[in-house]
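Re: weekly structure request thread

Next one in the queue (189 aa):
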Amino acid sequence: MFVFRPRNAIAVMLALAGCGSDSTPPATYNDISLEGDALRAEFAGAPLTSLANLPDTGSFNYSGVFQVSEIDIEPDVEGEDLAGQLRLTADFASNSISGNILNVVNSRNEIYEGSVSITGDILREEFPRISSTSVGILIRDGVTLDVSALFDGRFVGEAYEGITGDAGISIRENGSFPRNFDGTFVVQR
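Done, posted below.
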């Protein structure tokens, strides 16, 4: 039997303090890719959430990853791949999405510091979806990068357990021609 003691409570709080922290990015691009593979496998074959199953009130937090590859590059140039964590909150009362992109890393395991805020809408269609945009700044090797992103996805699972879809990201360095990336995202609650 567990007896509450202040010393026990402090030990439990210290043990939990490091759990679920967003401050430490996954060690490598491969770690994020593996997390994405696991989440996609979990939702493979899951039905799209129907409008009848989507709540009208309340909000839920979702977390997961995005993975994108550079597009519009010269034929002999190797493009860059990016991956990162994605945190979303679906507010069903206001039909809105908010959240952020964080812990971004490229396929060479170079870290992009900072986070980018996401805002968007829940579109109540036969099979509800989200449409969101984000604009912000990430920093890599001391260089400030202007980032814009689009996330368009559908709720999956009978009880809206996840959201999967397409991700598009554009990065500009000092007003240069944008580098464009295209890929996918998957989050679960």
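Strands lie at 59-71, 81-91, 96-106, 111-123, 129-140, 143-156, 162-173, 179-188. Residues 29-43 form the longest helix (15 residues).
Next request, please.
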